[in-house]
Amino acid sequence: MTTVFPTATITGYPRIGARRELKRAVEAYWAGKSGQKELKQTAQKIQQDAYRTLTERGLTDDYAIPADFSFYDQVLDTTRLFTALPARFESVRDDRGLIDLDGYFALARGTEHLPPLELTKWFDTNYHYLVPEIGPTTGFTLNTEALDDLLAAAEAAGTSARPSITGPLTYLLLAKAEDGAPTDFAPLDRLADLLPLYRELLAHLAGRGVRWVQFNEPALGADQAVSEAELAQLIEKTYGEFTQLSDRPSLLVTSPYGNLTGLLEPLATSGVEALHLDLVSIGYDADALARLFGGDSAPLLVAGVVNGRNIWRNDLAASLHTLQAVGAASVSTSASLQHVPYDLDLETGLDQKLTSWLAFAHQKVSEVALLARGLAEGPEAIPTEVEQAKAALAARAQSSGVNDPCIRERTLSITPENYERPSARVRQQAQEDLNLPLLPTTTIGSFPQTGHIRSLRADYRKGALTREELDAHLREEIRCVIDFQERLGLDVLVHGEAERNDMVQYFAENFDGFAPTEHGWVQSYGSRCTRPSILWGDVKRSGAGTRGDAFTVPWISFAQQQTDKPVKGMLTGPVTILAWSFVRDDQPLAATATQVALALADEIADLEAAGTRIIQVDEPALRELLPLRVEDQAAYLDWSVGAFRLATSQVADSTQIHTHLCYSEFNEIFEAIDALNADVTSIEAARSRLELLADVPESFDRGIGPGVWDIHSPRVPQVDEIEKLLATALEHIPARQLWVNPDCGLKTRAYKETKASIESLVAATEAVRASLTVAV
């Protein structure tokens, strides 16, 4: 055991590959186009490239780099590590009784007959994890195969890497009770059964010569169903047991995203050798930290002062002051760098002014190394870098576009009436002429983005197609999508979004104050990557004047001309645009949300003027930004709900407003969802088998569409499966309010499975409609 810890470190690093190599390799393996050997070779190269880059950027000490690569998800990795298989997945055990790589992917994606594990948000980020299903009799068996592979890859690269593992408390707190478990059972009840496996793991790592291991415990920074006093006791039990082991690596415990509050002292006095704190998101008291970490028996304070979740350049002078004030022993990132893109140097198309304000993962690692040097040798060791950072911050504050007087004046003219609509009953009467059937069927927005569409976009970027030629192809795709839906019998259609590369980037390209990136990919879940745009200035639609020009109207109007059925106008909501962008950090989020909401209100007004009767404003990220502590949530919900209502309330009663939310625990904030005041709300629910409907109050008097088809799995739902889900929904929701739809958009699916799945959805709906008619 050693207590020597690197002075510069990070808590995690992107693992998709700088060019999304892992995405392509994994998807080729799933498609049967390559074998496991090729997949593992790609994974090993990604890891070796990471070790080389991080070393070159200044992480040169032993155990400065975490071994945190994952084929899909870090929580799923822990499920595999301990073979924590739910009973319904017994068939995926391999001949050893363990979870091999194919079993691992089966848990993530499901099989023909088994729905996958539930997918939900990782704290208040846009990353998603796979929820473990733990019951009273779930067995645990240690399987270090995948972890040993990671350590072997590090050794081959000449690196002493630090294993990064989901801590036992976080793993069980994030789990859900397995179906059939007693109502009073919680996965945390199994802690005493899981801890021996963690002790066995520590012994195994010690046997391999590993001297530091990282246990990630972010759940301790969020409010939980169990009390803080009980969690403090569990910390003492868990880490007290670990630290009493005679032969083990030293322990670093990380706590990104949230404030440990009353759990800080129990962790700091638990005997662990190092404790990481997020000092970017959390305003810990510097004097209190200095006292807590100043004693001889105190752990080393690993200070997360470089933002691991945003892309703005670090204020080196301010960070050095913080490091000195808290008595930091090591400099780190606030959270894993998996939340930011790889390298700013790849962004050759960004304005040079903007790039001088930014730092991606590679640049952040350099900032960590610089700060570690400044902490060890004093600020005078890095004077040039400190002054450059200070000058960049000053230039940013004074730059044109960061503060637009016209936009700011407009926000001051908002009145309370701008947030209100008449009662739901009044609106429903005004919308009766839409002539929708009982249990209307629809989809969420996007249709499959085919290789043909992607190749057309690539040809346009290369200059092989003119804008007019590309648009003609896209209109033909929209025509085909409308015809496809009509033939399948859907009631409310969408235009398919062929013209959109991404549901947020598309808006960033049509709003002032945004800058899209070319290579700024980050992992959302599994092989799914997103490319957040940079929201750097005041926001309005691009074009002349404060209102700018409409940009969705031509596409929606063209689609509506192809059919007599209603076609939804499709917009992304203000909170989701913020959550899925890298947002300016120089003003409150609420102020930025108001600007985005006004820009969306302008687009909605133009859609309505063009004759669009149904307009969907998606807010899948509403739950994502919810603060982790209850005491902070009311203020967030107030401005986030307000932004949605500001965008959507200035319409006629006859215009039907929809919204869509997905992949979070929305039952926790249903009161806020109700307050959105949308005419129809569609919510992801298939993987959880509609469990959130039990929390819908009887007073909810508007349309609701709980997803009955999980589009994040390639499996096609069967008719009887959807019928059962609809029967469950009708136990909670009156038939006159129930809509039938998939969980999310269909962009990532193929047309073959999309056709079969919609056929199942329509057939199941028709059968249930018939049964309701007979019952009446």
Oligomer: single chain
Separate helix tally: 26
Average residue-wise pLDDT: 95
Name the strands of the widest sheet in spatial order. 1-5-7-8-9-10-11
Low-confidence stretches: none
- Main sheet properties: 7 strands, parallel
Distance between the termini: 73 Å
Q: What share of the residues does DSSP label as strand, in percent? A: 5-15%
Shape: globular
- Helix-and-strand structural type: alpha/beta
The number of E-state strands comes to 21
Helix content: 25-40%
The rounded Rg comes to 26 Å
Name the descriptors.
776 residues, alpha/beta, seven-stranded parallel sheet, globular
Short description:
The chain is of the alpha/beta class and 776 residues long. It has 26 helices and 21 strands.
Describe it for me?
This protein is α/β, with parallel strands linked by helices and 776 residues long. Helices cover 40% and strands 12% of the residues. β18, α23 (633-648) and β19 (656-661) form a beta-alpha-beta unit. The chain is globular and about 75 Å long. The model has no long low-confidence stretch (mean pLDDT 95).
